[in-house]
Amino acid sequence: MVTQITRGIKISVLTSFEGTYFKNYKIHFAFTYQITIENQSKDSVQLNSRHWEIYDSLNSKEIVDGEGVVGKKPVLKPGESHVYSSGCLLASPIGAMKGHFNMINFTSTKSFKVEIPTFKLSATFALN
């Protein structure tokens, strides 16, 4: 698990390799990740959008921007957490992801970024 705290918001990431399959005559490597967003600050906050940079060992980079996370824009009061799972496909068995969440602080009404630490995506057979 990797974790990082930005402005009182703790992000924790767990990953899992789900297997391989063929799509459009090419092999793809499927990964899932579980993100825990924990509000350790004294203010209520809301996650509005996300930005991802997805890399694989073949040197390709994909940028993904979108609203919320899996269709939600969670509001977190102090001490609350939000957990969600998602996934991605890579063209190679090894890769990584990083990014940030765009959030708003309800007390100050200011927007801020919460960094998502870089986490590795590795197929179990590719670790040796």
TrEMBL record:
This is Co2+/Mg2+ efflux protein ApaG. PROSITE patterns: APAG. Coiled coil: none annotated. Pfam families: DUF525 (PF04379). Residues 3-128 form the ApaG domain. PANTHER family: F-BOX ONLY PROTEIN 3 (PTHR14289), POLYMERASE DELTA-INTERACTING PROTEIN 2 (PTHR14289:SF16).
